[in-house]
Design a protein that fits this description.
Helix content is about 30%, strand content about 20%. The chain is of the alpha/beta class. The chain folds into 2 domains: about 1-20 and about 65-105 and about 150-229, Rossmann fold (3-Layer(aba) Sandwich), CATH 3.40.50.1220; about 20-65 and about 110-145, SIR2/SIRT2 'Small Domain' (2-Layer Sandwich). α5 (about 70-75) runs parallel beside α8 (about 215-225). The longest helix has 16 residues, at about 45-60.
Length: about 230
Amino acid sequence: MKQKVVVLTGAGISAESGLATFRDANGLWEGHDVMEVASPEGWQKNPKLVLQFYNERRKSALAVEPNAAHKALVDLEQKYEVSIITQNVDDLHERAGSTNILHLHGKLFESRSTKDERLVYPMKGWELKLGDLCEKGSQLRPNIVWFGEAVPLIEKAAEETMHADYLLIIGTSLQVYPAAGLLAYAPHDTPIYLIDPNTPAVSHRRNFTIIQEKATVGVPALVKKLLGE
């Protein structure tokens, strides 16, 4: 039976493909207060602005490609069972070729009903407009987990982490909860590798290795090591 590698990825891995990271130090995202474009209240107040904002995010995502870090994670599947738990809403892991991806914060290229959240639709292009309706006649919204909304897949992510033989943490500040709390679910003896140029404050567990590199450098090197090359 293959050993299990659980990979937690954040904005840093997508940033190297050219996607803007979620927000800068003053809480703005592409010039917008995050609560204006990423909260139920923002949606109620100005759905047109929210739709425009995510249309721009989709355009940006379509213009970039998976990078060396995304591609190296695919190579791990030669030897391991790999589960990627990502805080990113883009589809770069999918486009690189990874086969088992859990999107904690939703998917940029999906829309969902505002009346029935079980009604989720794949999006072919980048544009979602006011007047685009679900089959029950309600406005479609981005299938994104906004601030103040529950993270429906967090329990499944915790369960995956509990069975990790290796845990890789890539390009995340470990500041966004509940995702940051996943670290606590890793078995006590599981080796944990953190790859990030800016070392976040993390627990001093044993078997904890910090690789202070950007993802496109650190991930391929670590994958080679785990594959025994």
